[in-house]
Sequence to fold (774 residues):
Amino acid sequence: MRHGKYPLIIAFLVPPLLLYGIFVLSPYVQAFQISTTDWGGYTADANYVGFDNFTRLFRDGQIWNAIQNNAILLAVVPVVTIALGLFFATMLNMGGRRGQAGVVGVRGTGVYRLVYFFPQVLSVVIIAVVWREVYHPNNGLLNAALGAVGIDGPTWLGDPRFAFWCVLAVLVWSNVGFYVVLFGAAMQAIPRDIYEAVLLDGASRLVTVVKITIPLLWDTIQVAWIYLAIAALDGFILVQLMTDGGPNFSSDVIGLRMYNTAFASDTRFGYASAIGVVMFFLTLSVSVLALRASRRDRIDYS
Amino acid sequence: MNSTRRDILRRGVVAGVLATPAAGLLSSCAMGGDDDDSGTGSERGEKTTENPFGVKVDAPLEVVIFNGGYGEDYAKAHEAMYTEKYPKAKITHSATQEISKTLQPRFVDGSPPDVVNNSGAGQIDQGGLVSQGALSDLTELLGAPSLDVPGKTVKDTLLPGVVEVGSYDGKFFVLNISYTAYGIWYSTKLFTDKGWAYPKTWDEHIALCKTIKAAGIAPWTYAGKHPRYMSWPVIATAIKFGGLGVAEAIDNLEPNAWKSDAMKASADAWHQIVKDGFILPGTPGLDHVQSQTEWCRGKAAFISCGSWLENEQKAVTPAGFNMSVAPTPSLGASDKLPFEAMRGTASEPFIVPAKAKNVPGGLEYFRTMLSMKGAKDFTQKVSALSVVAGSADGATLGPGLSSVVKALDASGANGFNWVYQNYYRKLERELVDAACGEFFSGRIGPAEFLDQCQKGADSIASDSSIKKYKRA
Fold:
């Protein structure tokens, strides 16, 4: 068996590593290289400009404005999404009153689960288009509902006070379903005897959630946290389709800045790559920090 | 799960560290195209009066068309006309909705197609292409004799402004084949029913807005999410008031061009429709299609748009709506241009890349498009005006387009245009756009509006990484 080891390893390992190197690593590396040039994107000519793009970026007010919005997304989206996800998953898995052990879901759990998961099935583009109509100031679902109770709704996506939060709400809405299912699955794996034991000890439902469920779900929550943090640093598709960063840059995000700089309103690929490089390091540091901050000992059920 | 996530991140760090030393090795990747210019237009045949560009009769021609509102059939017809003259030339035709994504690698690689219809949302920024030397100079085309209008050069057959809008620093790089008028649109049916007449002066305009509002209709709506649509009437009003120099100053990024007296007078006037609540409530939250649809449903009387409006709204325009375009109202008796003066410009750009294999073929293809036969066919197929003068004669046009023809006729030699959005796309698409949004939703006044536009223009002017153009 031993003598056949290396050909086997090479046969199975080299092609994927090669593909990974060419299609994943080399574009990254090239982005770093391009970010030090003034490449315009439509000829082969590019001049090396050192760190010019980065110094320009540092003084670019539009970039800072976009980063600020991403920072708000980063602070709000993961917290709200995980809280809602945990709440709904808890209701679906242990919110019901039937049975002694108190670990069944509310009535109609299956239907709810389907409803929550529904946005996950839709393409983000469709979500954006649907919500654009929901936020329609005159004929939209939202203002019609507000109008029915006598409130004059705002123009939502046309108002710099609301536009960003409207997109943020859709970002949360489109993500929650997935985490309901993810947390739900993890909750199913928690042994029932633990719940029976604490209920016998007289613990309330809230205490059960805080002291038993959440600690036992910690690994899953941590993963959710990192995924959501990365999503919050992006947000590009929803923003571009719903508000295109407006009004007056109030809902701009750094991903949109990069896209506009390269393709939409500018053709400065060098500068856009510099924005991409900054995004890379931002995402990287946020992920590392999230992992460090949420590290805990692993619990094994045995 | 934990360990794998961490591994991925660790690999990311490694990639970052590797980047620096590896950068030098990668000169042959994304940007490593063919640097020599030897291919440029080298395949020339002999120049004759029949063949002014020296097309090699059997040289293949590759045409890439933007497959949008105009479709691709009109181009296939032009290609058939080209093949009639050069039966040995093999034409490769393709159509895409994503010009930039499809062609960017080929531009870099040095093997772009011969003719590109650079249009649509995925359009390549033309200022960028020009500044990177990626386009062929089309000046030769203008001096060539027209294919089927005897005694005239191609330039003689074009409507005013076509050459100017495709020129950068006096060189003609971009041929736009569709002629667009920008103005204020209204439904003649609505106006006849109510007994209203389109106002010629600003005071009449405000008076009519009052009447319209009293009739329970909002006088105005606009593309709230693309508020730059409203910068067009504001600048047009200023040009008519202060003369063509107003536009030239803006195009040339002159200091305080946006704060000229004419722009101030115009912004003050337009502020009136915001102040008096003449704009359909909710408009800032609508995109262009949503606002145009509200207008078609009779919720608002006026909207600012270009002559593509009729085509864009085809599906939702009620029968008998009879949309019509009109110039912006005159501010007063001292206006430098008459009321009829209107912004007319060419759109739907075509380019020949500098590194195209068959540059003469591309020029000849343009000459075919600009022949009377090609232009008439274009107008029939896509119901839009061609840049060739007189090509709409005898064609059956919709009410909107007929009104465009009439308005352009009336405007005649007084027609005007501006081009800063071609030179510095970011200025209109992002900066002026944002300022218009604030202004027309009433969050800022006219002075702050012009300030914000000026600040945008200044930021472009002072950015050394953006190439500047002078309007000739």
Q: What stands out?
A: Chain A touches chain B through 60 residues (CB under 8 Å). The mean pLDDT of chain A is 88. The CA atoms of residues 35 and 273 of chain A lie 5 Å apart.
